[in-house]
Amino acid sequence: MSRKPAHVIAIYPGSFDPITHGHLDLVERGSRMFDRLIVSVLRNEAKQSLFSVEERKAMLSEVLNVYPNVEVDSFDGLLVEHAAARGATVLLRGIRAISDYEYELQMALMNRRLAPEIETVFMMAHEAYSFISSRLVKEVFGLGGNISGLVPPAVEARLHARLSNHKLKGAT
Ligand code: PNS
Fold first, then answer.
1. Where are the beta strands (DSSP E) in 43-158?
2. Quick one: pLDDT at residue 171?
3. Residue 71's closest CA among 26, 103, 39?
4. CA 32–ligand 1 middle distance (angstroms)
5. Closest ligand 1 atom to the C-alpha of 16?
6. Which residue in 23, 57, 82, 93 is the catalytic one?
7. pTM of the predicted model, to two decimals?
8. Contact residues for 38 (Cβ-Cβ < 8 A; gap 6+)
9. I need a labelling partner for 134 at 20 to 30 A (CA). Which of 25, 42, 44, 170 fits?
10. Is residue 163 very low, low, confident or very high in pLDDT (cuts 50, 70, 90)?
């Protein structure tokens, strides 16, 4: 096994469609643990998303530019190959509830099999945010519910813009 690198780089991968306060909390805590944290958006043409990868990256960059050791990237293909290409030795993931555990365990074990030198580190979501998911934020917002406090204001503004755009398109 290789020794601890002098400079520990971690990748925080995800869909981030869009970033929520739950993700943001993990980035903030991760930025204090690792020398460099790369928040990386999966490019997955098969998965339907509300925001394009470029829009998600723009939102992440806007919200995360206060952290000097955090950067935003995207990837396709295998996560461990992306991590290796970026010199990362840690994959960071959050766990909100026991329901997340099974999926995360499977991914962590598969990633370990593919690249044993890369370690998955889990952080427990902050209890204030453990019920938040991008999927539910979109659902509540789409149904007219209040999502303030669940996502950063810049993301809320983008959601409003996206909705009024759709309404405008629907009206023509
Ligand atoms: O935010 P999400 O959608 O839960 O993130 C899932 C993600 C991006 C971490 C996962 O789908 C992923 O790592 N995809 C890359 C493909 C891959 O490496 N698969 C094999 C190992 S599980």
1. 70-75, 90-95, 119-124
2. 47
3. 39
4. 24
5. 1
6. 23
7. 0.94
8. 9, 10, 11, 12, 70, 71, 72, 73, 86, 88
9. 170
10. confident
Task: Decide which of 30 and 167 is more confident.
Answer: 30
Contact 135, 96 (CB under 8 A): no
Tell me the one-letter amino acid at 10. A
Q: Tell me if 123 sits within 8 A of 30, measured CB to CB.
A: yes
**C-alpha–C-alpha distance, residues 12 and 93, integer Å:** 6
Residues in the ligand 1 pocket, defined by CB under 6 Å: 13-15, 42, 78-79, 107, 110-111
CA atoms within 13 A on the CB side of 32: 6
Q: Cα of 164 to ligand 1 centre, how many Å?
A: 31
Q: Which of 4, 47, 113, 169 is catalytic?
A: 47
Q: Is 23 a catalytic residue?
A: yes
- The strand pairing partners of 14, in sequence order, are 41
> Cα separation of 46 and 7, whole Å?
35
Does the annotation mark 96 as catalytic? yes
